[in-house]
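Sequence in, structure out. Go.
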Amino acid sequence: MLHNTDIYETLKYRLMTNGFEHGQKVKAEHLRQEFGCSASTIREVLFRLSTLGLVEFRDQRGFRVPEKSAEVVSELTHLRVLLEAEGTAMSIRLGGIAWEAQLTAAHHQLSHLEMRLQTAVDRAPFVDLWFAAERQFHDTLISACGSDSLRSTHHQIYCRFRQQLMVEDRAFDFISNNIKHHQQILDAALSGDEALTRQKIHDHLARRLMTAAS
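Output:
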């Protein structure tokens, strides 16, 4: 039998990566049977996921995946820009060589995958790897900020942001710009230029602001 934490992480990943459709009802009984656990365990996990914003709970109606919303994408994008820009600036000040090495390694992995994705005919084998590597890079940007509150808030916003775009991002039509943007963010961060780094993070996410506003 899986531990509660394993069930939580499995469902969180599915909710972020199109394992459930927008607006879909999450049936606790089906999940209980799948994971071979008690009904109370599944409800506990789903309530934890609801505090993260990845499912919504309503009395008499149970749990449901949030609908796709242009307004929500816009709001989450603004919050990501604010949190990542500030968190990265703090990491530049506090992280030192160890953080720079971790960031470089995270970027190397992500860049390799995005280069492969750019030319791949069948992109399916890369989807899960890309989701993990992209999250790792953006987590590493703020990893040395020294604020647990900023990091936990960013994690919640990032999860909801990724869920909102879990369908359209699988087309990877943004991959060429991503390669350029991630390199620019890395270069700016390693140069120690906080203002430039903030601008490059904004530039990277700006298409979501324009999409949401259009």
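Check: Strands lie at 25-26, 56-58, 62-64. The chain has nine helices and three strands.
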